[in-house]
Amino acid sequence: MGKSKNTAGIARLQRWCNDLERAMPIVAYYMKLYTVEKILSERGEQEVRSVAAQLLDQVELFKREAVGEAAVLALIEDQQKAKTVVLNFALKMHNGILEKLSLLGHTEDVRTGLWCSMDLLQCILHLWSHDEDVLSEQERAECQRRVKHVKYTLARGKPEAPLAPLAPEVADDQGPPVFVDEEQPMSSSPSSSPAAAAAAPNMQAVLDQEQKISQVQKLAKYAISALNYDDIPTAKAELQAALALLNTL
Q1: Which Gene3D superfamilies does this UniProt record tie to the protein (predicted)?
Q2: 79-157 maps to which CATH number?
Q3: Which residues, at least 6 apart from 112, have a Cβ–Cβ distance to it below 8 Å?
């Protein structure tokens, strides 16, 4: 007897958790949280719920091991920083898959990569879309746009080009676009890990950049405040400091 759609979908997410553990552990941490929440919300079979228990144990172990590692701990405690790292990783992976799609066509490896990138983008939407202070409207729209593009490509068996349209444009004689079933099981044939293929970003570099951008924003606010009091010299000094910091990015 084959797996149910729910079980097949969770098995796919579990595979990404394992792949990401090797490629980017902090991204795997959030994929595990997403998988657990998805299992609990869907009231899956006992076999699937046991997967949730195993993943929760791994999550707790990761948190304990992160104590003493400032960069990793920051990505657990600060959701803004966590979103930045996970989103950067997801977009870089998806862009890489799109390049392979244009060069190689709809191969099994490319199809696997599309599934992985879609699940990771949906993980981001699930975990952070409820808070605009963490995931901006623009970031949410971009994730949703890419998810739609992947679903269309998987359903049609060929790439939809270009990615730019928010929704695929289909000629009248083709009928409406058919989107892929999110719980559809993948082929069991071996393929390379799309998560491992994506180069892991330097976490400290990402955090440093975010801190610099935050400082630039503060300096710009100080300049505006100075202008409100006609304090031109201070406004110039703050803007020059902001520009100098921007030039290091």
Answers
A1: Immunoglobulin FC, subunit C, Vacuolar protein sorting-associated protein vta1
A2: 1.25.40.270
A3: 186, 191, 192, 194
Provide the 3-class DSSP secondary structure of residue 180.
coil
What is the model's pLDDT at position 6?
A: 65
Reported confidence tier of residue 209, pLDDT bands at 50, 70, 90: low
**CA-CA distance, 62 to 59, in Å (whole number)?**
5
Q: What is the CATH number of domain 203-247?
A: 1.20.5.420
Domain 1-77, CATH class in plain words: mainly alpha
C-alpha 30/C-alpha 88 separation (Å) is 14
Cα-based distances in Å from 40 to 46, 48, 87, 115: 11, 9, 24, 22
* More confident of the two residues 215 and 176: 215
- 43-50 long-range contacts (CB < 8 A, ≥24 apart) are 44/6, 44/7, 44/10, 45/4, 45/6, 45/7, 47/7, 48/6, 48/7, 48/10
**What is the residue-averaged pLDDT of the chain?**
80
Instruction: Report d(CA 122, CA 31) in Å as an integer.
Output: 10
Quick one: pLDDT at residue 68? 83
CA angle 22, 191, 206 (to 5 degrees): 35
Question: Which residues of the chain are in CATH 1.20.5.420 domains?
Answer: 203-247
For 60, the token pair is 């707790």
Tokens of 233: 């010299």
